[in-house]
Design brief:
By secondary structure, this protein is mainly alpha-helical. Helix content is 59%, strand content 11%. The longest helix is centred in the middle third of the chain and has 29 residues, at 35-63. The chain is elongated. The two termini are 42 Å apart.
Amino acid sequence: MAFTRNRRFSYNSGMAEMSNIQLELLRLYGSNVSDETLREVKGVLAKYFADRATDRMDSVWTEKDLTDEDMIAWTNEHSRSESRPRH
């Protein structure tokens, strides 16, 4: 994999745009880290994004004035994929 200053990298002769978080993590961890450190970093990132998603859902919940009964009703609804015939 080769980096260029224009935020692109080549991998198997394909080109892909790198996000700002990918670039920052590459700068931060330019060398190998232990498997334990890698697991810890992945856990921190996963928790961060899960917390953000939870905060956003809480906001939507409040904005729409949803209740626990609404959630229970949703869980009792059949999903579209269940109503499709199986092949």
